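User: quick one - fold this with flavin mononucleotide bound?
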Amino acid sequence: MYKDIKSIPVIAAGGIYSGQDIYRFIQLGASGVQMGTIFVTSEECDAPYAFKKTYIDSNQEDIIIIQSPVGMPGRAIRNGYINKIESGTEVPKNCPLHCIKTCDYQKSPYCIMKALYNSSKGNMKRGYAFAGSNAYLAKKISTVKEIISALKAEYEMAELKMI
Ligand SMILES: Cc1cc2nc3c(=O)[nH]c(=O)nc-3n(C[C@H](O)[C@H](O)[C@H](O)COP(=O)(O)O)c2cc1C
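Assistant: Sure. Structure tokens for the protein plus flavin mononucleotide:
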């Protein structure tokens, strides 16, 4: 069935944050890369400033894997709300939304729908930010044009073996 397939493009993703990273994965044979986290702190990203600020303010040790109530792990930035979840004070009293069958609210440490809604509105006291492993590298809000220019310059430097 697959004998006519000459090549399958592989797109590398996860933790790619610099032009050097892109260069490394292209050298390893990837056809391209997917980058998410680096664009969260762009001006063009429509997340609220409070959400973006959690990236800028984070340290490497704040980037953690949490278990979501729907049964999947997710990478997030530790904040006061996650601390509350871990201390068991955020247990849902009811479930008005029934958003997914795999979530039993009586066994859930918190309601992820409410937490994500709150963080999407910038209410980080009642929610948290999902993020890639390199979110702590964000230092400021930049335009997409500035981010792409920096990535291109870093890629070219890596190509010339200058970095
Ligand atoms: C705000 C945010 C939300 C995300 N939500 C999901 C998600 O719901 N499901 C998923 O599979 N990946 C999710 N991801 C992970 C992306 O798939 C990941 O960012 C992408 O592979 C690129 O990796 P990078 O962010 O390290 O560049 C999310 C990433 C971010 C930054």
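One thing worth noting: Residues 46-139 form one domain.
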